[in-house]
Specification:
Order of helices and strands: HEEHHHHEEEEHEHEHEEH
Number of helices: 9
Oligomer: single chain
Number of domains: 3
Radius of gyration: 34 Å
Distance between the termini: 124 Å
Structural class: alpha+beta
Helix content: 40-55%
Strand content: 15-25%
Shape: elongated
């Protein structure tokens, strides 16, 4: 029995010795300081914990300090992101100091980054810098309704590399931050109202005064159509088969997701009113002339 206990103790000692040797195995050396496997694992764990603490700390500062200040939600979000990155930098420096890792490691990483840029990482750095500029200049803010490069929707998240936009079809689109710096951006929220238009063609013998009355009646009956700026009916062109009119109206910026359904409601109501008052919406017509002749 004593022999079995002695063997068990020797086995555990041998296992601990092997584990200790493996953890102290030197992987590489930086500026005269050896980096062992155990130190590397400890550093990764400390960085993960630091990341979690940074997120929690930024949230606490937001709830306890920023929440009591009269700040716009978008500015509050930007400050919260900067606080998170500040805490993350502090936790990273604390980890390096605790593990006695030289700060010159950033020189090595900087050199590797420079080589990476030379091989095609310019977009990553451009998006990173653009993200900082977007947060500082604030051409867009969280919850803004924007339109850029054929994508329109509400801003859900502004990251350091990209921005998340949810479209009217409930699709999530990730847009690189460089797009907001280099391309033309429309921010409907900043303008306060969104313009919409519906094109309609009516027969040439239509009473245009009655047409204007019916159009204004339809716009007044459709919810969410704003009275200021006032809607208008514009005579756009003499078409081949019809008189072409553009119905101009405005909706609030917060109603941006409903703009397609609002336009549809206007068309439905116009069709009902045109049918009731016998206003014709002609379809394109073409006269076909057949010339008879003899082939010789």
């Amino acid at each position: 029995m004593e022999k079995e206990q002695l063997l068990a103790q020797m086995t555990w000692r041998e296992i601990l010795r092997i584990v200790f040797e493996v953890l102290n195995y030197q992987l590489f050396e930086l500026d005269g300081h050896g980096i062992s496997l155990g130190k590397l694992i400890t550093g990764v764990m400390m960085l993960v914990v630091g990341y979690m603490i940074s997120r929690r700390g930024a949230t606490e500062v937001d709830n306890r300090l920023l929440g009591r200040m009269s700040l716009e939600e978008s500015l509050r979000y930007t400050l919260r992101r900067f606080i998170f990155y500040f805490f993350l930098c502090l936790s990273t420096l604390f980890t390096l100091h605790t593990l006695n890792v030289p700060v010159t490691i950033f020189t090595v990483l900087g050199g590797a980054l420079a080589v990476g840029i030379g091989f095609g990482s310019q977009n990553l750095v451009n998006n990173f810098i653009s993200g900082i500029l977007v947060m500082m200049e604030r051409p867009i803010r969280v919850s803004d309704f924007i339109e850029i490069e054929g994508v329109s929707g509400q801003v859900e998240n502004i990251g350091i590399r990209s921005t998340v936009v949810r479209t009217g079809l409930n699709a999530v689109t990730v847009i690189p931050n460089t797009t907001f710096i280099e391309k033309n951006l429309t921010n409907w929220t900043m303008s306060g109202s969104i313009a919409g238009s519906v094109r309609v063609g009516v027969a040439y013998d239509t009473d245009v005064k009655l047409l204007r009355e019916l159009v204004m009646k339809a716009l007044a009956e459709v919810p969410l159509v704003a009275n200021d700026p006032a809607p208008d009916l514009v005579f756009s062109d003499f078409g081949d088969s019809a008189l072409i009119f553009d119905i101009l109206y405005y909706i609030g910026a917060s109603d941006f997701p409903s703009r397609r359904s609002i336009g549809s409601s206007i068309r439905f109501r116009l069709l009902e009113l045109f049918t009731m008052h016998k206003i014709e919406v002609p379809f394109p017509q073409h006269d076909l002339h057949i010339r008879s002749g003899r082939i010789t």
